[in-house]
Amino acid sequence: MKLKIFKIVLVFSFLLSILWFGRETIAEYVVDDPVLPIEEYFSSGGAYTDCNGKLLRSVANIRGDYLFPVKLKNQSKELIEAVITAEDRNFRTHPGFDLGAIIRAAKQNLKNRRVVSGASTITQQLIRIAVPRERTFAAKIAEFFGSIRIEAAYSKDEILEKYLNSVCLFGNVRGTAMAAQLLFGKDSGMLNLAESAALAAAIQAPGRYNPFTLKGNLALLARRNRILHDMLKLGKCSESEYKNALKEIIPTYKKKRAFNAPHFCDYLEKEQGKPVGTIETTIDLNIQNKLALILKSHMPRLERQGATQAAAMIVDAKTAEVIAMCGSAEYGPISGGFNNGTTSLRSGGSVLKPFLYALAFEKGYFPSYTISDTMQPFKTQRGDYLPENSQQRDYGPVSIRLALGNSLNVSAVKMLNQLGVSDFYNFLVESEILEYKDKGAETFGLGLAIGNPEIKMTNLAQAFGIFGNGGVFKSLKFIKGQKQTVKEIISKESAYMIFDILSDPSARLLTFGNPSFFKTSVPTAIKTGTSTAYRDCWLVAHDQNFIAVVWAGNFNGKPTRGLTGATACGPIFRDIYNIKHEKKTLTGRLNKGLTEKRLVCAVSGLRPSAFCKLKSSDLFVRSEYEKISECHFHTITGTYHMLNPEYATWLEKRKKNIDADPFKLETPAVTDNSGANIKIISPHEGDRFVYSAYHGAPINLRAIPSRALSEIIWFVNGIELERTAPPYETIWFAEKGTHVITAYAEGAVASQITIVVE
Prior knowledge:
By secondary structure, the chain is of the alpha+beta class.
């Protein structure tokens, strides 16, 4: 009874002394809210994790502390129990201060006439972390009353979560999650009993219990074992668990601080500022690491052919979440490895062609529509432009399917000329591929068809997604829960027809053949691109699960030694495809819209006539098939495919190499040329030429009539120069001066231009 009275008197005296000696501090602290500095502490600095909670990178807060805040549920149960055992056994029941601990500490300190034991609860320690003060009596008073406020503001789990995320461990490392990475190289949720007790032991005095010194490691080991013994006595572990834990050693060296997906984290920090708390990103670290290894493994091959860098990214096709992003083959100073190739502007090459033909489909064209893949000069603001295919040859009548599948430049430029440069430029802006503020359609002209503007890989990845998502655009997601821009760019039908062409191996046989790296087990839309002088090599691929984009080249713009999108990026894509399809199956189906396959003439791509012997099937928008015209290549019985005068030059060149050409120019009218229109396509109105003393000024004269004529008569300044049968072209050696050139046929509408030779 006397002992009980003594305890009551002791506690009462302690409280009276607090109230008396700390009255001014108490009065001041009642005004302050201890909740605010705690929130401020966590409002700067933090960490990025992948989609599975694995640490990518931690970023120091305003005090220079590295935090990796995690939810309490993601801390191991052993760690939680070890910390409570070591620091505050009555944490779950006390109101912020522990009277029993206060009495015990007071008695021990009085007995030893010095401070040998403290009574700070976890709640009071949390205040001390957020609001550092000198270790004075007044500070103790502030923490005492502040703990009551904290307990009223937060639940026990919230207090414990904040404490575990901010407690000081190992220098400027804060929180058990960060410390677990540094000491054990694992997430705090994966800590076992021995590891948990070791971290809990270090909290009391991180300097004294520094595991990275011999003395500190031995001291930490001894304290860990005492905590394990206490946990055994409290029934928090079994005898066998206790004995096994005692056998484990504590590491003596630091693990490397997590530095994963560096280009991705750099990008997020640049775009959104330093992370506040823990940011869960869309990255899958397992796939990210595999992608990095793939790029690195291909560098010896690429370097032999003049490419010093490569970049790639993988995107979830349905959600547009970025799964992996490698901005270079290796993050570092070598070959500009700190640069981020996924967000840099690079010349796009032919990867823009699918968008060109998507616009064509929106305007009523169809996959079997025939384009004249014949060389023809075009007049531009910068002079005459003569597009060429990469194989330095033209292919005559080709369908859009073959033109896109084989990435033919001449066909693409002719299609763009029909659609209009401004319309296509605006379409690329709407698709968020182009984001120029100081350049318009006139800057790029017909070169838009073959990808002369610079684009970002990130923009290409999100825009390419429209072909597998029914024409719907989704902006990329980098962070879980991030808001997206979602909008319809093209119809379901147009999107599906592009996807079908790009996933059709037979459509690319003409120029690419059937290389092994293009062979896939599921339908995959693949498009390559190569910029001028082989500087930038691209490949973008899209199946129902993922979108992959690969780039190879040099960050300084130096040309490679003949690398193309297929040869540089194809083998990389094959390895990416393999890791993405290790265990994953297709999810969902492509939206075909109202498309259906119908019969067409295999040569003209139009509805078959009675004279068409070769037929095939291709995609059409339902109800549009009946609107297309009947084949005009075959209008009489015979084996020839009759072509109009646009193909005259192409047919003339074929005569040198083909004895029995199945293509033939349509028969000219014998006497009646009425209704025919003649167009001079070389030179152009207003062209200027330089006269050479050695070579003069040779000028190629070429015209195309709207239908076959027996001949075209050329006049220069009113004087007849020459009469040309198909292919209606000749060479004229011009003198200096201004010249009026006329192409004429009796009964037809003539064409006239003016040029200058200087």
